[in-house]
Design goal:
The complex is a heterodimer. Chain A is mostly beta strands. Helix content of chain A is 0%, strand content 50%. Chain B is globular. Classes of the chains: A mainly beta, B mainly beta.
């Protein structure tokens, strides 16, 4: 079945560090890829999406580029802030699946001041 | 921005009882979803609902589960009877298209 793999379960950084969270996917079709962020006590919030090869999605300084060749959609940010501390989820959605999202396991980011 | 409201935020019930989780989706949205998240684990799709019908459901959506949206009001998830393994946070979401899903804050269900 379709799946999303996030390599890092937890990431600990200091403010202004560079962030990379790795996301790889496996899908039967040509999926749209998403990043969501979840703060404590809340539901996931949409960060951005990309739907075709080489397309870059971005929001709030975060960005990721759809790479069909390596089946990846890695999340990056040049300089993290303490307020970025949250759980980040990579997800995929297939057309014709009525917008069902398949989520990765999530990566908990902790940024220290 | 648009908000999905979930009521209640926490529900505690005894195993075997019935429970109904309520969701007030964004007003012009057409697609509705339930996801289940066990503490510390990933979000897992349960079901999606469109035009008054279940469109897709996962293996987690057991026979004891049902969803409905009577007369365009709350979108509900009913579990009857509940089991210990139903303890989790249940997230409702809604969307217009496949651009993005809007999630509520979740209802934590504790089955004793």
């Amino acid at each position: 079945g379709d799946s999303v793999t996030q390599t890092e379960g937890q990431v600990a950084l200091s403010e202004e560090d560079f962030l990379t969270i790795h996301c790889n996917y496996s899908a039967s079709g040509y999926p749209a890829l998403f990043w969501y962020v979840q703060y404590p006590g809340e539901g996931p919030q949409f960060l951005f999406r990309a739907s075709r090869d080489k397309e870059k999605g971005s929001s709030r300084g975060f960005e990721a580029t759809y790479d069909k060749g390596t089946t990846s959609f890695h999340l990056r940010k040049a300089s993290v802030q303490e307020s970025d501390s949250a759980v980040y989820y990579c997800a995929l959605g297939l057309s014709g699946s009525f917008n069902k999202l398949t989520f990765g396991a999530g990566t908990r980011l902790a940024v220290c001041p | 921005g648009p908000k999905v409201l979930q009521i209640p935020s926490h529900q505690i019930i005894d195993m075997g009882q019935m429970v109904t989780l309520n969701c007030d989706p964004v007003s012009n949205h057409l697609y509705f979803y339930w996801y289940k998240q066990i503490l510390g684990q990933q979000m897992e799709f349960l079901v999606n609902f469109y035009n008054g019908k279940v469109m897709e459901k996962s293996k987690l959506f057991k026979d004891q589960f049902s969803v409905e949206r009577p007369d365009g009001s709350y979108f509900t998830l009913k579990i009857q009877p509940t089991a210990l393994e139903d303890s989790a946070v249940y997230f409702c979401a809604s969307s217009v298209t496949n651009e993005r899903l809007f999630f509520g804050h979740g209802t934590k269900l504790s089955v004793l």
